[in-house]
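Forum: Protein Structure Q&A
Topic: Joint prediction for protein chains with partners

I've read a bunch of threads here and the consensus seems to be that you should model interacting components together rather than docking separate models afterwards. I'd like to see that in practice. Below is the full input, 529 residues plus whatever partners are listed. Could one of the regulars post the assembled result?
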Amino acid sequence: MQYSKKVLDYFMKPRNLGELSNADGEATVGNPKCGDIMKIYLKINKNEAGEEIIEDIRFQTLGCGAAIATSSMATEMVKGKTLDEAYKITNQQVADELGGLPALKMHCSNLAADAIKKAIENYRTNTPK
Amino acid sequence: MQKKIYLDYAATTPVDKETLEKMMPYFSNDFGNPSSVHNMGQTANAAIDETRNKVAKILNSKQSEIIFTSGATESNNLAIRGTLSHYCAKNGKNAPKPHFITSTIEHHCVLETIESLEKAELIEATFLPVDSEGLIDLEKLKSSIRDNTLLISIMYVNNEIGTIQPIVEIGNLIKELNSNRKNKIIFHSDAVQALNYLDCDTKKLGVDMLSFSAHKFYGPKGAGALYIKKGTPFKSIQTGGVQEFKLRAGTQNVPAIVGLGIAVDEIKNNNALEIKKLRDYLIERVLKEIPASYLNGHREKRSPNNANFRFDNIEGEGLLLSLDMEGICASTGSACSSGSLDPSHVLLALGLRHEQAHGSLRLTLGKHTTREEIDFTIEKIKEIVARLRQISGNVLSEFK
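Posted by a regular:
Agreed with the consensus. Here's the joint model:
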């Protein structure tokens, strides 16, 4: 399989794997039909400037090597970032950070940034201003 | 270099060393064109005829009934299109469309050929469903036959799940029906996964045509054959040469055909009993030691070298990738590995849901497979399935 070394590393040693028991936001993307499902859990806190940041993040993914590697990489990219920064991360940026993905994988398995956006929205919807 | 454990013998097999040695002279020394009149041409032609003789023996047929091709994909195309080609030539442009029957779990080279002819409005087609173990139903087959049914093509052994179809029974059924029919039905079987392990006596099977390929039984890639019973209405689909009794134009691949012949000789050393024991051991241990694991296909009516599993909450490509890193070569019906968006059409035809089909793993054994390799592979599958399940958690449950 034509995966980069970095993809294989993030697949074999996933970062931020697991659940967060009292998550402030969570979301699931993908569907069983195409085979890739990702779930993201967020713990939100405030930094010294009073901005909301992703203090902790976890993922669970049922999917191929690319799906697991992108989930893993995306969580690493947004951890510690403000919600506004994290919300801007794109699927393309996640793929780039992994040194690229096989063309076929770009659509079906590269959904982690979407999952993070959705989890942030979930947090914002459920948190009174 | 990491030692490889090859468990993908249904995809292809290594060429036996002795076979390769016997092929070698035909590349540069005895390289003549078998159609040439001179001595070198006749040497090549004699080599081809020797293979033809061997193939005829194993199929219990006449030499003139064996057509060499580039492999099973070509043989299957030739069988289907050659049948239609004859029908069209004989009956003219305005003839009613003939009806072809096949199963939903055929190899793509049969399935897509029939689909494309149906789409081009040249034939009517029926795709017979299979049961949850991959077997076709003879009653359903019988009731799908029409007055204009011209061809029935049913594979002998399925390449993914190893299920063995009742070819003898189908052959008998067609023979019986044909005795009262004006329009005789032609029976073709793709035997590419069968030749190495099962009886392919064409008289016993009752087939009119049979396809196979050398590289599935330790012969070279690029050589296969189509058996066409004498008297079967058939016309070539390729023009520009009189080779292979005018049924397959083109210079024969002499070294590969020589290799095919040696490989046929070697079938007797296929180690089938030992392979079946190891395969049964593999199936028993995996089903017992891995929770939520299942066998795809029929437990008994299956090729002796095939094991096809599925694991809940696992995606096959990740499993394959992890096995590959351990040096284990396997195969899956997951969409991710096939280059399409859908998982294996065979697994879906069994009635499996997409997420079940995505979690499949095919291990096919061969004569070089050892007990140690199987033990190592089982341990690795256990570790990898546990690891991938830890990653996938319970996310699938949200969709139930």
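The longest strand of chain A covers residues 36-46.
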